[in-house]
Design goal:
The complex is a heterotrimer of chains A (about 625), B (about 325) and C (about 270).
Chain A: E1 16-27, E2 30-42, E3 47-51, H1 58-65, E4 74-84, E5 90-92, H2 98-104, E6 109-112, H3 126-138, H4 142-155, H5 161-166, H6 174-186, E7 192-196, H7 204-221, E8 224-229, H8 232-238, E9 241-246, E10 249-255, H9 256-261, H10 266-274, H11 296-300, E11 313-328, E12 333-349, E13 353-357, H12 364-371, E14 379-384, E15 387-388, H13 394-400, E16 404-407, H14 421-431, H15 437-450, H16 467-479, E17 485-489, H17 497-514, E18 517-522, H18 525-531, E19 534-539, E20 542-548, H19 549-554, H20 559-567, E21 591-593, E22 603-607, E23 610-613
Chain B: H1 2-27, H2 33-38, H3 44-54, H4 60-72, H5 86-121, H6 126-140, H7 143-157, H8 173-207, H9 210-217, H10 222-259, H11 265-275, H12 278-306, H13 308-312
Helix pairs in contact in B: 1-12, 5-6, 5-8, 5-10, 6-8, 7-8, 7-10, 8-10, 9-10, 10-11, 10-12, 11-12
Chain C: H1 7-29, H2 33-36, H3 62-98, H4 100-114, H5 118-129, H6 133-160, H7 163-170, H8 175-211, H9 223-230, H10 239-266
Helix pairs in contact in C: 1-3, 1-10, 3-4, 3-6, 3-8, 3-10, 4-6, 5-6, 6-8, 8-9, 8-10, 9-10
Chain lengths: ~625, ~325, ~270
């Protein structure tokens, strides 16, 4: 009774029908409702995306269906969860006994989680983790279980499946681990697959593979998919129908086209407006502010500068190389080097934005830190408005840092929790002796005005602020010494999309008003397309392609740039891109033995200002 | 291989540092050993003679060299109090102490792990409150207080176990266990409380991990989620803390062995300290520190077996 | 603030306040002879209305002796922990912040010291210096330092890697200001938690040292010393040991209870 034959319940019965779901959590402050009133249903072979920002209750909803919410201190306080079992019987999961739930979990309902790095038990082999569900639900043993595990690994297209069975999770990459987690969820051919932000922690090319994989498995098995995400672009690519959630309630529900083309509710409209769509900047000469609903007039009044005729370079980087030693052996000698940044050169003009894009580990962050000398580069030249940054003494470096500031990724960790915001924003002013006494207070107050924070926040501590507000404080701190360059390292990545749009607009406005230059480090191609004058694509420590934004996005010449752009999901269901879920990328690593020959980066100029890395002989 | 060589080198270096620290603590601190031995009222020529005899007038480096040289050649010197070769004393007493250290660790682990897991599984429920309160109470009582209570209860009132003395296990194994039982229990109760707390907090952390949720989502029973998926990950951390507690035990045996007149390392170290038997103090302090260090080295090696992530490196 | 107000936190804190108050005020209020007055006719009497905790082998009132013993026991433990924090804090912060060769050498040394059981180290130092109250303080203080230095170093290392430290460096903050403004305030919560827990251990250590005759010496009185004196009379007068033992246990329990709550609230790693 396993397999596809049992996958077709009686006509018209949804696989799952959620009605009036309410979930409560007992906290120190009393009872809190994580989900207030949620209803939806999913038909066989259908993908329902539940989308919402943080705190919307979307994950709570998915965990409630498997009744896993009870292990996190939650309780289903109302509503029903009608699930059509393979036997044809319909059962209310909200009232099912624990042993019934155990026989459904992993058997008739499979689940995939967000973090592939922590989803697998670090001390068990892949084989054990793949087979224990099979042993429990299917009664398979020994060779049979192993054979089925091998089949599953082939089904999720993992290279060298036999070898993987004996490996431990830490020996596999993030993308491979997520394939294993999917294989585990698929082990017993579930009727319903729940995927809770399954690609959020992954790089965009791997995201494309995983999305393709989930879609193929759905089609091949005819199962229903409940897909939880915060990313509208992923919704557009995956969903048949969409449920939009906000603070524990369903705001809007409908077929994916309707939601994207004719959203009814203001919240949905605002959410969609704030999402940048890759390709929408085609034929536009300069960066444009993000759309924020109900705010157009205000923002369009201050467009960022177009690329002027007279471009004065502010920052010139030549042949920058930063390596990290890998130590080992008896005397802790350096046995290898991580070539984090390898022979990188570029120029950034005054008042412009250069974006460094690439996937995790490509060296983009290290590049930004090397320029500020927060890590020391091994060689190369950095010229910033007359400063020879790499040649500066410790004392001169402190002075030079007035001209270059940084905004970090994590708004929660980049502010000292035990200092008032006033003191934190004033710190550079105090350090550089730029102001003191009442003048200091006034200048900080003005900076707060500038980043649109109320002055009453001056005396507050970071924990009293939201993520977006903290990032504004971090921007105010960076602005304090009147820098010429700001390195923004994934500065909006941790923010919800509507907040992200506001912070990006603030940055662009500051650029227009103050003539700032930004080195914008990001993995988000759609955001980069919106904010940049020039773009540099990094891969394994090198810039593989650099040029004006339009040239790189509309006429990408390097194979890696193309694969990157192809992988980006677009927030438009009319522009779905079918993804092959095979992993083609060769395993490559930026770690080289000591003394390994390193080729210099050399480029072809394919168009004025548009350079493409020549293929390396070694690669 | 390189790893083992690395560790071996580190052990030798640490042993040397232990000897330096031991020697420094017992020699450089003020206090005249000769006067301690003969008493403050003794006559100056006798004092001078004893100083000469003990080599106390030599430079410290020479004294250290003589001591370490003797140890390397297996000549640990003679005890001033016991008038016996220190090497023989160490061998006997270490055996006696090893027995109660192992027994107390066994008692502690057998009870602490299930209690801690039980508390972690029922976090913030009555089971947790009971287990955690008992553990909190347990770590708050001094070992010698446990010892006194045990003596009053099991030796004086019930008469089940002897309250003092030591029997060599190679002579009379059962008698040795009977004599070692109460001291082991006195040491084990506090340790048990401590390990219960460690198990609870380790397991609480593990049960909040994503892979536990994944295991539940696979439909595994709570029993295998907790005792197989969960506990298997806690073994390493619990083992490490238990290893570190061996150091604590070797401190506590001084009090407990003295209380029970159990003639092991703790008892002899105490006698040496009371009588200012400097050669014996130096050697027994060195041996205790060395045993503690080596135990933790073995625990580190065992960790390699338990955790595949570390095995890789 | 609200998270301090668990039953455990409130009970622990209240007990600590009461015990510390006894430690400070008992010697000022209780006439000294209440505790030292010997009555040979009243030797080893069980608890009664006149003597709530009974009398000891010299006919002295155990109740008052326990109250007065708080002063010595708490004083020694407090001073010892102060010493270990004063040495361990700068050592740990400098080691964790500077890293590199200095850190390697310091931590190799500290790790070696950690191989010596703290009680053994304290006993040896005390025996070598000659037992007295100041020497007991020094002995326990030194014995506890390596552990504190190790833990503070780990925390300093963690804090030094936080983005706000990097942000401050980018803002031109020098090393001294960095430690003062950013490292120290963020390490302090852990120091407070560890100091509270160390205080509990120091009370146990003082009791252990005195019990072995290598800590507080007569005519001074401490709980450990009282337990030592009771050893010969355990059969006939168990209360002579139980009263000071209970005093130690209650104090340590209160500190541990409060320490647990402090850790839950303050220790960033516990959250």
């Amino acid at each position: 009774m396993t397999g596809a034959t049992a996958m077709h319940p009686a006509e018209g019965h949804p696989i799952i029908k959620v009605s009036g779901l309410r979930v409560e959590f007992q906290t120190d402050d009393g009872m809190v409702a994580g989900v207030k009133d949620v209803s939806f249903e999913i038909q066989p072979g259908e993908t329902l995306c539940v989308v919402g920002e943080s705190g919307s209750g979307k994950s709570v909803t998915s965990l409630s269906i498997l009744r896993l919410i009870e292990f996190g201190g939650g309780r289903i306080a109302g509503g029903s969860l009608e699930f059509a079992r393979g036997s044809g019987e319909v059962i209310d999961l909200a009232k099912a006994e624990p042993d019934v739930m155990q026989s459904i979990r992993g058997n008739e309902i499979g689940m995939i989680f967000q973090e592939p790095m922590t989803s697998l038990n670090p001390v068990f082999t892949i084989e054990r983790q793949l087979t224990d569900g099979l042993k429990r639900h299917r009664g398979l043993t020994g060779e049979d279980a192993r054979g089925r595990a091998l089949e599953l690994l082939k089904e999720v297209r993992i290279p060298e499946p036999e070898r993987r069975l004996t490996q431990y999770p830490h020996e596999l990459s993030g993308g491979m681990r997520q394939r294993i987690v999917i294989a585990m969820a698929m082990a017993c051919r579930p009727r319903l697959l729940i995927a809770d932000e399954p690609t959020t922690a992954l790089d965009v090319t791997i995201q494309a593979e995983i999305l393709g994989l989930i879609d193929r498995l759905k089609r091949e098995n005819g199962m229903a998919v409940l897909f939880i995400t915060h990313d509208m672009a992923v919704v557009a690519q995956m969903a048949d129908r969409v449920v939009v959630m906000y603070r524990g309630d369903v705001v809007e529900e409908g077929p994916v086209r309707d939601i994207f083309e004719q959203p009814r509710e203001a919240y949905t409209k605002a959410l969609l407006a704030a999402v940048p769509k890759l390709g929408e900047m085609r034929d536009k000469p300069a960066p444009e502010p993000m759309r924020i609903l109900g705010d157009e007039t205000l923002r369009s009044a201050a467009p960022p500068p177009t690329i002027g005729t007279r471009r004065e370079p502010l920052l010139t980087v030549k042949n920058l190389t930063t390596r990290f030693p890998v130590k080992g052996g008896l005397m802790r000698r350096t046995v290898a080097n991580v070539h984090a940044v390898e022979d990188v050169s570029f120029q950034l003009a005054k008042g412009e934005t250069l974006s460094l894009v690439g996937e995790s580990g490509c060296g983009k962050s290290t590049c930004g830190r090397s320029i500020l000398r927060l890590v020391e580069a091994d060689s190369g030249e950095i010229q910033l408005d007359g400063w020879n940054v790499r040649g500066l003494s410790r004392l001169d470096l402190r002075h030079a840092r007035r001209d270059m500031q940084m905004v970090f990724q994590d708004p929660f960790a980049s502010l000292n929790p035990y200092r008032r915001l006033l003191d934190q924003v004033a710190e550079p002013l105090v350090n550089f002796g730029l102001a003191s006494g009442s003048e200091l207070h006034d200048r900080v107050a003005h900076l707060f005005d500038r980043v649109e924070l109320p002055r009453s926040f001056l005396r507050r501590f970071p924990h009293e602020l939201s993520g977006g507000q903290r990032q504004r404080v971090a921007i105010a701190r960076a602005l304090a010494p009147n820098p010429k360059l700001i390195v923004a390292d994934e500065s909006v990545s941790a923010l919800d999309v509507s907040v992200q749009a506001q912070v990006l607009n603030l940055l662009m406005e500051l650029q227009a008003d103050l003539g700032l230059s930004f080195l914008f480090i990001s993995h988000d191609m759609a955001v980069v397309e919106r904010v940049s004058h020039n773009v540099a694509v990094m891969y394994l420590g090198r810039i593989v392609e650099i040029g004006p934004r339009a040239a790189v996005f509309e006429n990408p010449r390097h194979a890696y740039t193309r694969s990157l752009l192809d992988a980006v999901p677009i927030a438009d269901p009319a522009r779905r891109r079918p993804h092959d879920d095979r992993s083609f990328r060769p395993l490559s690593s930026p770690i080289f033995p000591v003394g390994a020959p390193v080729e210099p980066s050399s480029y072809d100029e394919v168009a004025p200002g548009h350079f493409v890395l020549r293929p390396l002989a070694a690669a | 291989m390189t790893y083992l060589l690395n560790r071996l080198f580190s052990i030798v270096l640490t042993l040397w540092l232990i000897s330096v620290i031991t020697f420094a603590v017992t020699s450089i601190l003020p206090g005249d050993v000769a006067m301690m031995i003969l008493g403050t009222q003794s006559n100056p020529t006798a004092l001078a003679g004893l100083r000469e005899q003990l080599g106390l007038n030599d430079p410290l480096v020479a004294q250290y060299g003589r001591w370490i040289g003797g140890m390397l050649t297996g000549n640990f010197g003679h005890s001033l109090v016991f008038k016996e070769p220190i090497a023989d004393l160490m061998a006997q007493k270490m055996k006696a102490s090893a027995l109660i250290v192992v027994m107390s660790m066994a008692i502690a682990l057998i009870c602490a792990v299930p209690l801690g897991v039980w508390a972690a599984v029922h976090r913030k429920k009555w089971q947790d409150t009971v287990s955690s309160s008992a553990a909190l109470f347990g770590i708050s009582l001094p070992d010698f207080f446990w010892g006194i209570v045990l003596i009053l209860l099991f030796a004086r009132t019930l008469g089940w176990f002897p309250s003092s003395g030591f029997t060599d296990p190679s002579v009379d194994f059962l008698g040795a266990i009977r004599h070692a039982f109460l001291p082991s229990l006195a040491l084990g109760l506090g340790l048990m409380a401590h390990l219960t707390r460690v198990t609870r907090s380790t397991m609480t952390g593990i049960l909040n991990q994503e892979f536990i949720r994944v295991a539940r989502a696979k439909g595994l029973s709570e029993k295998s989620v907790v005792w197989s998926y969960g506990l298997r990950n806690a073994v390493g951390p619990i083992m490490t803390v238990a290893g570190l507690q061996v150091g604590y035990l070797f401190g506590s045996i001084i009090v407990v062995e003295t209380l029970f007149n159990y003639t092991g390392m703790g008892w002899i170290t105490y006698q040496a300290l009371l009588n200012r038997d400097v050669p014996l103090i130096q050697t027994s302090v060195f041996f205790i520190a060395a045993v503690v260090m080596l135990t933790n080295f073995v625990v580190d090696l065992l960790y390699l077996l338990v955790d595949p992530r570390i095995r890789m490196q | 603030m609200k998270r301090f107000l668990t039953p455990q936190g409130v009970i622990g804190f209240t007990l600590i306040v009461i015990i510390v108050a006894i430690g400070i005020f008992a010697p000022l209020i209780i006439p000294p002879d209440m505790a030292t007055k010997m009555k040979m006719t009243m030797r080893l009497k069980p608890p009664s209305m006149g003597y709530p905790f009974g009398t000891d082998q010299l006919g002295r009132d155990i109740f008052f002796r326990v109250l007065l013993g708080a002063h010595t026991s708490l004083g020694i433990a407090g001073a010892a922990v102060a010493i270990s924090v004063l040495i361990g804090l700068p050592l740990g912060i400098i080691s964790g912040y500077a890293r590199g060769a200095l850190d390697n050498v310091l931590m190799r040394f500290v790790d070696t010291l950690l191989s010596f059981p703290a009680l053994l180290l304290a006993l040896t130092i005390s025996a070598m210096l000659g037992p007295s109250i100041p020497n007991t303080i020094i002995a326990i203080g030194i014995a506890f330092t390596p552990f504190l230095a190790r833990i503070i170093r780990g925390e300093a290392l963690r804090v030094s890697a936080m983005p706000y430290v990097e942000a401050a460096r980018a803002a031109g903050t020098n090393d001294a200001a960095m430690i003062w403004r950013h490292i120290l305030p963020n390490v302090m919560p852990l120091v407070i938690v560890q100091a509270t827990i160390s205080l509990a251990f120091a009370i146990l250590a003082e009791a252990g040292l005195s019990f072995l005759g290598l800590g507080t010496q007569p005519p001074n009185s401490s709980w450990g010393l009282m337990i030592q004196a009771s050893r010969d009379y355990l059969d006939v007068a168990p209360w002579t040991a139980l009263a000071p033992g209970a005093a130690v246990a209650l104090t340590v329990l209160a500190l541990n209870m409060f320490g647990d709550v402090l850790r839950d609230v303050l220790d960033p790693r516990a959250q």
